[in-house]
């Protein structure tokens, strides 16, 4: 057990290191540079030598005048001190502050949509596997849903429910007329704005999980332990419960595998709905070549996906006795 | 008479038509009798065994009746059959290695299974433990997951589960096929032990391995191409078989002490007919060295000596 966990943690640390390195590299591969961008935005002076002076000053300030390897080392040093740098786009706010404002919206959007879609999709898929007629209807629909890009469904929902029916707002996390407070009016407004982005994430993931579960259940009901129980006259509900318990295992692994995709999907959905989470922020950061903000956003995503995966690894130990046995075998 | 089967006919539904896997099976098994059911692959022995307990599509009930302890079994009605399964008729499946839910502890699974059949687990538990002792399994297995048992242990565990409610008829389907010879012998002896202790009243042991049947079976039923060929006490089948197919089958078995470098082991030339459109008359006709005109008619399955049933026109002629 201990050996298993140590190994897992080592693998996660290695993944973290590689992912963060790529995260550091990617913005630097983009054409253009953040300081010129920043100066262009404020358009301080028309004098070329004045601009050059300001450019040198800011390049030194952000440490961008150093050789790349030095920048890379400095980046890790700063990271261990909890310093993600200062945003050039929202200068002079530290990246940490910017992220702190955005992260709650992400958590609020991602956690319910991922978990609810997983839970509901699995239960619905298991239910659909029982009835031929329901299955004939649900299966094609689920395939269409799971193949739909997140933002496209987001746009459709925004158009239909927001513009045609006018039931839901299509942008922002709350009305411009309100300020964030712990009041019922504000919370209701928040939920009202949250619903469409949530629904577009939920519906697509729901389709995927429902298909997966439906296929797994049909497979498990054909499995030999199911046939044995049938031969011994066990009632359907017991056989179905066993099938469900077995079929849920690959779905848990599936959740770990799909987490990255879902988070990426959430990013574009946020852009569609101008929802002020990491996705929306990331788009702005990329458009403004804000190295530090891009790094910060990706760092948050990397951490989120890795932690969630680790939690799923732990859950798996609890639900599948065979993993536990494997661990005993290893240490023996 | 524990089991009485009359005219049982079961087909398989396929896209190309019905496969005549079992036709007009008529036989009886006495109380305490272990009947071996042998024949080559695809001759319908598993179909016959399964039709007595799990007659599900693509198997299709065509006709015939089955009585167990003088009570008719509704084998064509899976819902009604549920009441008899496990309590009266039970099955040790071919796939015993995978017959248990991999993510439940074995004891827990047995408990859930029993409770779903309205049997009190606590009441059965002492008997269950006695039987574990009998098959030399430690009581700890109830706290284990199936993956923690070896193949032979799983096989014995499934034998214990299947016979737990003392069924009148236990169908053991190819249960020795996946085991090594030493374990085969132990399993075979356990079957006999189960009968001797009256855990089960009578048994059908399905196998293609006649030497196993020689050890356990009181009588042997030989099938060929979906029909019954011969049923007789084990000694008679081995020493004085009457059906030409049985004779050729027995003569194909290797014998101890014979060097097969000197004497080639003979097989039966030809292949069994396809059951999608079986030939009329005796189904062994094409491969039978003794076939004559009469064999174009289907031979009945008749008792030619005490407890010795044969379906062969030649045999009837010899007796006439």
UniProtKB/TrEMBL annotation, chain A:
Belongs to the binding-protein-dependent transport system permease family. Residues 103-312 form the ABC transmembrane type-1 domain. This is Peptide ABC transporter permease. One of its GO terms (biological process) is transmembrane transport. Keywords: Membrane, Transmembrane, Transmembrane helix, Transport. PANTHER family: OLIGOPEPTIDE TRANSPORT SYSTEM PERMEASE PROTEIN (PTHR43376:SF1). It is a multi-pass membrane protein. It comes from the Bacteria. Pfam families: BPD_transp_1 (PF00528). It is found in: Cell membrane; Membrane.
Automatic annotation (TrEMBL), chain B:
It comes from the Bacteria. The keyword Metal-binding does not apply. It holds the Pfam family oligo_HPY. Keywords: ATP-binding, Nucleotide-binding, Transport. InterPro entries: AAA+_ATPase (IPR003593), ABC_transporter-like_ATP-bd (IPR003439), ABC_transporter-like_CS (IPR017871), Oligopep_ABC_C (IPR013563), P-loop_NTPase (IPR027417). PROSITE patterns: ABC_TRANSPORTER_1, ABC_TRANSPORTER_2. SMART domains: AAA. Residues 3-250 form the ABC transporter domain. GO terms for biological process: peptide transport. PANTHER family: MALTOSE ABC TRANSPORTER, ATP-BINDING PROTEIN, OLIGOPEPTIDE/DIPEPTIDE ABC TRANSPORTER, ATPASE SUBUNIT. This is Peptide ABC transporter ATPase.
């Amino acid at each position: 057990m201990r050996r298993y966990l140590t190994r897992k943690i080592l693998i996660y640390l290695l993944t973290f290191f590689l992912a963060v390195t790529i995260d550091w590299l990617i913005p630097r591969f983009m054409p253009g540079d953040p300081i010129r961008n920043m100066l262009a935005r404020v358009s301080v002076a028309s004098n070329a030598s004045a601009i050059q002076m300001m450019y040198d000053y800011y390049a030194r300030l952000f440490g961008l005048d150093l050789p790349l390897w030095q920048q890379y080392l400095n980046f890790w040093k700063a990271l261990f001190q909890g310093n993600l740098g200062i945003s050039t786009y929202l200068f002079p706010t530290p990246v940490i502050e910017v992220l702190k404002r955005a992260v709650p919206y992400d958590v609020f959007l991602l956690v319910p949509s991922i978990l609810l879609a997983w839970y509901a999709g699995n239960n619905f898929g298991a239910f659909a596997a029982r009835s031929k007629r329901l299955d004939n209807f649900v299966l094609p629909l689920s395939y269409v849903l799971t193949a739909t890009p997140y933002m496209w469904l987001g746009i459709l929902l925004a158009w239909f429910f927001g513009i045609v029916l006018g039931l839901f707002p299509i942008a922002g996390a709350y009305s411009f007329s309100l300020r964030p407070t712990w009041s019922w009016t504000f919370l209701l407004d928040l939920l009202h704005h949250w619903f469409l982005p949530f629904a577009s994430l939920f519906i697509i993931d729901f389709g995927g999980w429902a298909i997966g579960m439906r296929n797994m259940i049909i497979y498990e009901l054909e499995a030999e332990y199911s046939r044995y129980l049938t031969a011994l006259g066990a009632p359907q509900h017991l056989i179905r419960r066993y099938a469900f318990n077995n079929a849920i295992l690959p779905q848990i692994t599936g959740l770990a595998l799909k987490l990255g995709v879902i988070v990426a999907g959430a990013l574009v959905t946020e852009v569609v709905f101008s929802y002020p989470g990491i996705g929306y922020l990331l788009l702005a950061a990329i458009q403004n070549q804000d190295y530090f903000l891009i790094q910060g956003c990706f760092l948050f995503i990397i951490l989120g996906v890795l932690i969630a995966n680790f939690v799923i690894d732990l859950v798996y130990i609890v639900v599948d006795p065979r993993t536990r046995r494997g661990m005993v075998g290893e240490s023996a | 008479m524990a089991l009485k089967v009359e005219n049982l006919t079961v087909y398989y539904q396929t896209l190309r038509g019905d496969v005549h896997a079992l036709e007009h099976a008529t036989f009886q098994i006495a109380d305490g009798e272990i009947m071996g059911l042998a024949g080559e692959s695809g001759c319908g022995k598993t179909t016959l065994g399964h039709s007595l307990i799990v007659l599900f599509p693509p198997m299709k009930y065509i006709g015939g009746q089955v009585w167990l302890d003088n009570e008719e079994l509704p084998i064509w009605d899976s819902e009604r059959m549920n009441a008899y399964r496990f309590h009266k008729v039970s099955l040790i499946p071919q796939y015993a290695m995978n017959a248990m839910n991999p993510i439940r502890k074995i004891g827990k699974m047995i408990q859930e299974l029993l409770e779903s059949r309205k049997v009190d687990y606590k009441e059965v538990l002492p008997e269950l433990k006695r039987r574990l002792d009998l098959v030399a399994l430690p009581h700890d297995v109830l706290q284990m997951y199936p993956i923690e048992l070896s193949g032979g242990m799983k096989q014995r565990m499934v034998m214990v589960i299947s016979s737990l409610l003392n069924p009148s008829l236990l169908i053991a389907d190819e249960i020795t096929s996946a085991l090594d010879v030493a374990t085969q012998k132990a399993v075979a002896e356990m079957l006999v032990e189960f009968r001797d202790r009256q855990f089960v009243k009578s048994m059908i042991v399905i196998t293609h391995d006649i030497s196993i049947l020689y050890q356990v079976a009181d009588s042997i039923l030989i099938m060929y191409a979906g029909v019954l060929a011969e049923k007789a006490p084990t000694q008679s089948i081995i020493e004085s078989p009457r059906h030409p197919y049985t004779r050729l089958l027995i003569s194909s078995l290797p014998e101890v002490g014979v060097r097969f470098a000197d004497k080639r082991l003979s097989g039966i030339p030809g292949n069994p007919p396809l059951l999608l459109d079986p030939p009329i008359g005796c189904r062994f006709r094409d491969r039978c060295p003794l076939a004559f005109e009469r064999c174009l008619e289907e031979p009945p399955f008749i008792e030619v000596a005490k407890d010795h049933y044969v379906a062969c026109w030649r045999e009837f002629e010899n007796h006439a």
